[in-house]
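Hi R.,

Here's the chain you asked about this morning:
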Amino acid sequence: MTEVCGTSRIAGCQFTLFPMSDQFVDIILSSLEEVDSSKVWKDTDDVTTCVRGKMVHVFDVVKAIYLHAAKTGEHVAMSGTFSIGCPGDNEADVYMDETDQAINKEKSDTISQPAGCKFSLYPMGREDYMDKIYEQIDLSKARGVEVSASHYATRLDGEVNDIFNALEESFVKVQEKVSHVTMTFTISANSPSTKK
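And the predicted structure, written out as tokens:
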């Protein structure tokens, strides 16, 4: 049986939050509790948290969770994978009826937090995948973030809100042309290390 990409436009993100602090449990739990996740399907286990629904709400929730953890001033990292168009991905269809208003945006926009992020786009099933990736790297340069090359990834430096906006815009533009897209990312704030 040949698998083809699904027609559902449910987006999702599976991520892990890493507070480098003795208070890591409190930071993780308070960040999850402080964010309104009512417009996404959410599941948290001992390894990751997964959120799924409309793309606008998936990015809104992931960004808000990270911002609430990083605003503690502790060194906090997050690694995850965004995906859309995954074959058979139709569970949580009910969340696709939500309005497009991002319910955490107003609160997130008030948090100023510099960070560094590395991300990689994977347009699936396309021979011209590198063209699609290069288009987004070029666009990132005009999105209020510093863009630099890194092995197997593109680095973004700037405010967390701007970084997530650049990630979302890149992801949106690629998925408009490619049915199945994944994007991996790692973001870090308040690190005691200097940028390498």
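DSSP finds five helices and eight strands in the chain.

Let me know if you need anything else.
M.
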